[in-house]
């Protein structure tokens, strides 16, 4: 995807407000990367790398493809996404947090990637034309969006027919006896990450996409979903 195809909406994204707040919670996490790493280790119960690898393999970014990442954070998924699309493809990440987008841009500069870009803005107002992307990815971000249905619709519109959207995210424990921990863990997670646990993300994906499959792990608290846009 050429730079011109997505920069035309950058100004609108910057003026469009934030998804839930002003991004200051994630600005704090961007300044404390070691604490963020620890948070993810706790969220994934020590299996972070396993689940991230599974999600990327499910997305299966291909050479020459255009891939969007919703809530890209500090760009920790960029190496895997960029390796998949290779130099002939492109990756566009977007995030509401100025601190996170700054950290992601630093990662890009240090790596010397010319085909990876970051934009700060609202997930409901993507800086791409309809049907411009082959695939989209969201890792531990969709559950922090105040309007996930609107964000998922924006992703769907940005995908070409047959395109796929892979989500790696967390939800309250579903299985017994893990769900006994929810009264303690859910309030903490909500305050520290702007998590919105009331929203059933798998159901939201099913409302918007023609085909959705879900795999759950860790007592149902972690899931990998792949949603496909109807071809044609």
Description:
With 232 residues, this protein is of the alpha/beta class. The protein has one domain (4-228): Vaccinia Virus protein VP39 (Rossmann fold). It contains 10 helices and 7 strands. It has a 7-stranded mixed β-sheet, with helices on both faces. Strand 1, helix 6 (78-85) and strand 2 (90-95) form a beta-alpha-beta unit. Helix 3 (24-31) packs across helix 7 (98-111) and helix 8 (148-158) packs across helix 10. The chain is globular and about 50 Å long. It starts with a helix and ends with a strand.
Features:
single chain; 232 residues; alpha/beta; Rossmann fold; 7-stranded mixed β-sheet; 10 helices; 7 strands; globular; disordered N terminus
Give the gist of this structure.
This protein is α/β, with parallel strands linked by helices and about 230 residues long. It is built from ten helices and seven strands. Helix 3 packs across helix 7 and helix 8 packs across helix 10.
How are the SSEs ordered, and which strands pair?
Layout: H1 4-7, H2 10-15, H3 24-31, H4 33-43, H5 48-59, E1 66-70, H6 78-85, E2 90-95, H7 98-111, E3 116-120, E4 133-139, H8 148-158, E5 159-170, H9 182-193, H10 201-208, E6 211-217, E7 222-228
Parallel strand pairs: 1-2, 1-4, 2-3, 4-5
Antiparallel strand pairs: 5-7, 6-7
Q: Which CATH architecture would you pick?
A: 3-Layer(aba) Sandwich
Secondary-structure content class: alpha/beta
Number of strands: 7
Percent range for β-strand residues: 15-25%
Overall pLDDT: 87
Return Rg in Å. 16 Å
Task: Tell me the count of domains.
Answer: 1
**Main β sheet profile:** 7 strands, mixed
> CATH topology, what is it called?
Rossmann fold
Low-confidence stretches: 1-21
Question: CATH superfamily assignment?
Answer: Vaccinia Virus protein VP39
Question: What count of helical segments does DSSP give?
Answer: 10
Judging from the principal axes of the Cα atoms, what is the shape? globular
Helicity range: 40-55%
Q: What is the ordering of alpha helices and beta strands? A: HHHHHEHEHEEHEHHEE
Task: Write down the CATH class.
Answer: Alpha Beta
Question: How far is the first residue's CA from the last residue's CA?
Answer: 20 Å
């Amino acid at each position: 995807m050429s730079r011109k195809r997505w920069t035309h909406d950058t100004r609108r994204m910057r003026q469009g407000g934030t998804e839930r707040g002003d991004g200051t919670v994630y600005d704090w996490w961007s300044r404390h990367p070691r604490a963020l790493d620890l948070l993810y280790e706790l969220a994934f119960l020590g299996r972070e790398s396993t689940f991230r690898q599974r999600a990327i393999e499910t997305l299966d970014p291909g050479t020459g493809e255009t891939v969007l990442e919703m809530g890209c954070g500090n760009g920790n998924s960029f190496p895997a996404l960029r390796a998949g699309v290779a130099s002939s493809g492109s990756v566009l990440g977007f995030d509401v947090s100025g601190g996170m987008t700054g950290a992601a841009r630093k990662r890009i500069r240090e790596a010397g990637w010319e085909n990876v870009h970051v934009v700060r803005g609202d997930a409901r107002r993507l800086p791409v034309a309809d049907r411009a992307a082959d695939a989209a990815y969201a890792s531990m971000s969709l559950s922090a969006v105040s309007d996930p249905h609107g964000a998922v619709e924006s992703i769907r519109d940005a995908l070409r027919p047959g395109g796929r959207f892979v989500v790696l995210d967390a939800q309250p424990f579903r299985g017994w006896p893990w769900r006994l921990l929810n009264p303690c863990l859910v309030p903490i997670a909500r305050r520290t990450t702007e998590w919105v646990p009331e929203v059933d993300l798998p159901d939201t994906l099913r409302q918007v996409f023609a085909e959705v499959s879900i795999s759950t792990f860790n007592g149902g608290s972690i899931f990998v979903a792949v949603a496909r846009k109807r071809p044609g």
